[in-house]
Structure formats: structure tokens, C-alpha cells
């Protein structure tokens, strides 16, 4: 009630200010005697795409380091494959890619032969196999807002018509969401988060996501060790500093969970595996190439393809999807192509001999490779700073943590609630 009348008073005072055109006005926005609202902590999930935990030691991230030393920091194992969409979805659903259905950044599905999934796909069909935390939260009365997160623009649970105008029926989204756009600056994103938290309590989110892409982009273009990547770390760190300062100015306590989806490793000209040199292109079609290659056989050519792929070779290994080693937890979903080849970290598959130099960085390799490990920092009143996550802690365990912070009952998932149990004060 108080909040409503305060915002009304604010609106009135601002409009009378404009009407009067007074050059100098003592505006009574927040009088010293007005009672300050006791805000409940908000949970903020921040993703810094492609942030390798050792970037924290480059001496350019004072705000992240302060959050780490005032909270808890750990290296977090991503899910396989160490790609952006599978891992962002794993963090918010608790399901590994093999179960969540977001098995790659680019996908095919035999049930939809005419369709392909790309990172721009908002058709709920691709996303509906695992429920993200913002949907679970909204169902249980917790208001959510996303300033970008893969899948947060999707009408989850809905259906998209196969024909123009491709109407999407049913489905739900966070109360506040935004269509991803790389051109929306990090400053705008941080301000967007602070703006929703400035609202009256009845329309203010209790869970917010925030996403930064520049560290990943710099890592791809220049490589993880480049000065430009370090500069991107410094830039994002400054935005984190603005977020923290903005929260403080608002008097908004926050339980902040900062993650990355995967790390980054350097590529090189002399670490390329050319697929058409090891197998006959008449026998296969590639679905994805890069740190791994996924292949579909040309019907009737399976034997020829297998004898080429399964020869022992340096720096790579191929499997039938059903025989991918169990530790990857990958290979049962229908969207995974029949053959899967993984390169040694730092090596990449290309369809044909590269015509341009192979430089920069990439990710997608073994989820246990040191360079693929992900960032995890928590800071806020809910956390027990003495807690140390076990070495086996993986990103699917973040989902039960988020549910606990939000006070919602999580769905069953691949995530194990006991792994980070001690991280939250009883
Ligand atoms: P990757 O190709 O795995 O390195 O993916 C990183 C890229 O994903 C970023 O540079 C973004 O452009 C893109 N991306 C991140 N979030 C989204 C989103 N919500 N929707 C579409 N693209 C996204
Ligand atoms: Zn990524
Ligand atoms: Zn990337």
C-alpha cells in the first residue's frame, strides 16, 4: 500500500516539476523521513558466456574477485557437449543435454525432417522436453524476469503452427523477457535488471537472469590468451561492478549466482582434422563440425563409413551414438546424429582443407578438459561462505540450488540437490 502511494506521489511530483518548468526545484522524491522499504533478497543468475575460471587471476576483474572473496567461488564442470545452448539449458533445467533435448547449438530431429534447430529457434517443440526454472517459479507464484538467457524468449509448453503466420499457441514465458539481441549493450542489460528491481513490490521480480556475450566472442576471435579477451573480462567486470553498485543504491539485497556455460581453448593451424581426408564424403553428411563432428550416414553406406571412422587415429575418436562412453552422458536422444567424433582439446574437425588460417578459440570438447571448466561464484545473504563444493560439482546441480533460493519445489532432474546443499545457510 505504502509503495503504491509513494509511486503515485513520485509521478505527481515529477509531472508538476515538468509543468512548472522551475529552473531549480527541491523535489520531494525521497524525503529523509520516509520509511525505507525492507526488501527481500532477489536471486540474480548471471551468465558470462565462455568465462574460464582462471580469467579471474588476470588482475583485471576486481568486482568479480570481490564477489568471490566475499562469497564462494569454484570451478564448475559443464555438461557435454561444452556448447552454449546445451549448457545454458542444463543450468536452468537441471537436465543434461541428452535428456533436455537441447543436445547442440544446431540440431536435426527425425520427427521433423524439414526443420532444423539453430540458436535463433523459438519453436517450443525444441525446448519443451525440460522445464526451465522460470516456468516452475512462475507456476508457484514467484515472479521472474530475464535480461536474456537462451530459451527465455520461448513460449514454453506451447506449440508453433507449421504454416504462415506461424502462430504460437499456449505456452508461457517469464513475466518479463526480452528477445535476444547482441546489439543491446551490456550497460542497457544491467540497467534493464536494475529498472525491473526499481518497480513496486507487486510487479517486481524475485528471480532475474542477466547474460553477457563479449568474453566468449573475444575468446573465439582472438583466443583465450589474447589481450582482447582479457580486455573483455575487464569490461564485463566493470558492468558487474555497476550491477552491484546499483543494487546497493536501491537498497536491494541480492543472492547473486554468477556462472559461465563453458571455458575456451586455443585453436591452431596445425591442429585440424580434415574429414574428407579420413572418410569418403559420399558416405556421410556432417551435421556439426568443430571441436566435435556429428555425422549422419548416407543410407546404405554405414559399413564404409564405420570402417573409415573407427580406424585408430591420433587426436580424435569416433563412436556410434549408442557407444559414446558413459561419462559423457550423451547418446540416447533422437536429436544426436548416428555417429559422433570428438577431437582432442585444441584440435578441430573441418569438412575440407581450410582455406583460411585457423586461429582464435573454441569450446565443445570434453567436459572434463581443464580448459572447458566453467565459472561459479555466489555471493549474498543466503550463502554459507565456509562451504566448498566437491570437485565433482557440475552445472546441473545449479538448478536445485536456484529452486532452493527461490523457495520453489524443483522438478525431478539430473541435478543432485545434495551437492550444493551446504552452500545455503539453513
Ligand atoms: P557459441 O556459438 O556456442 O559460442 O554461442 C555463443 C553465442 O550465442 C553468443 O555470441 C550469442 O550471440 C549467442 N546467443 C546467446 N544467447 C542467445 C539467445 N538467447 N538467443 C540467440 N543467440 C544467443
Ligand atoms: Zn557459450
Ligand atoms: Zn562460444
Automatic annotation (TrEMBL):
Q: Record's superkingdom?
A: Bacteria
Q: Which UniProt keywords apply?
A: Signal
| Annotated GO MF terms | hydrolase activity
Pfam families, alphabetized: Phosphodiest
Keyword Transferase attributed: no
> Has keyword Transmembrane?
no
Which stretch is the leader sequence?
1-19
Question: Record's InterPro entries?
Answer: Alkaline_phosphatase_core_sf (IPR017850), Phosphodiest/P_Trfase (IPR002591)
- Tell me what this protein is called: Phosphodiesterase
Question: What organism does the record attribute this protein to?
Answer: Sphingobium cupriresistens LL01
Amino acid at each position: 500500500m505504502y509503495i503504491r502511494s509513494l509511486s503515485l506521489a513520485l509521478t505527481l511530483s515529477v509531472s508538476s516539476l515538468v509543468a512548472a518548468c522551475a529552473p531549480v526545484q527541491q523535489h520531494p522524491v525521497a524525503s529523509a523521513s520516509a520509511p525505507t522499504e525492507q526488501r527481500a533478497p532477489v536471486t540474480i543468475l548471471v551468465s558470462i558466456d565462455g568465462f574460464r575460471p582462471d580469467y579471474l587471476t588476470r588482475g583485471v576483474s576486481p568486482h568479480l574477485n570481490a564477489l568471490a572473496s566475499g562469497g564462494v567461488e569454484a570451478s564448475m564442470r559443464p555438461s557435454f557437449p561444452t556448447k552454449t545452448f546445451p549448457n545454458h539449458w542444463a543450468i536452468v533445467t537441471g537436465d543434461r543435454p541428452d535428456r533436455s533435448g537441447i543436445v547442440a547449438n544446431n540440431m536435426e530431429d527425425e520427427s521433423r525432417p524439414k526443420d532444423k534447430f539453430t540458436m535463433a529457434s523459438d519453436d517450443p517443440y525444441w525446448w519443451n522436453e525440460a522445464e526451465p526454472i522460470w516456468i516452475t517459479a512462475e507456476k508457484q507464484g514467484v515472479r521472474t524476469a530475464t535480461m536474456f538467457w537462451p530459451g527465455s524468449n520461448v513460449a514454453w509448453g506451447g506449440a508453433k503452427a507449421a504454416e504462415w503466420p506461424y502462430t504460437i499457441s499456449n505456452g508461457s514465458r517469464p513475466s518479463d523477457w526480452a528477445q535476444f539481441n547482441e546489439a543491446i549493450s551490456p550497460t542497457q542489460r544491467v540497467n534493464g535488471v536494475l529498472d525491473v528491481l526499481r518497480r513496486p513490490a507487486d510487479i517486481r521480480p524475485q528471480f532475474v537472469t542477466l547474460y553477457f556475450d563479449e568474453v566468449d566472442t573475444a575468446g573465439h576471435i582472438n583466443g583465450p590468451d589474447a589481450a582482447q579477451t582479457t580486455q573483455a573480462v575487464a569490461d564485463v567486470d566493470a558492468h558487474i561492478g555497476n550491477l552491484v553498485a546499483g543494487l546497493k543504491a536501491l537498497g536491494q539485497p541480492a543472492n547473486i549466482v554468477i556462472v559461465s556455460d563453458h571455458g575456451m581453448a586455443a585453436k591452431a593451424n596445425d591442429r585440424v582434422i580434415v574429414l574428407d581426408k579420413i572418410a569418403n564424403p559420399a558416405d556421410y553428411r556432417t551435421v556439426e563440425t568443430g571441436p566435435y563432428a556429428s555425422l549422419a550416414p548416407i543410407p546404405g553406406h554405414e559399413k564404409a563409413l564405420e570402417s573409415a571412422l573407427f580406424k585408430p587415429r591420433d587426436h580424435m575418436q569416433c563412436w556410434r551414438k549408442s557407444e559414446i562412453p558413459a561419462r559423457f552422458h550423451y547418446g540416447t536422444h533422437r536429436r544426436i546424429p548416428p555417429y559422433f567424433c570428438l577431437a582432442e582439446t585444441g584440435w578441430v574437425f573441418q569438412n575440407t582443407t581450410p582455406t583460411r588460417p585457423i586461429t582464435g578459440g573454441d569450446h565443445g570438447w570434453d567436459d572434463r578438459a581443464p580448459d572447458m571448466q566453467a565459472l561459479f561464484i555466489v555471493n549474498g545473504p543466503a550463502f554459507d561462505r565456509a562451504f566448498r563444493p566437491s570437485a565433482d560439482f557440475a552445472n546441473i546441480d545449479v538448478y536445485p540450488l536456484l529452486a532452493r533460493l527461490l523457495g520453489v519445489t524443483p522438478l525431478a532432474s539430473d541435478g543432485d540437490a545434495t551437492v550444493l546443499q551446504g552452500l545455503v545457510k539453513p
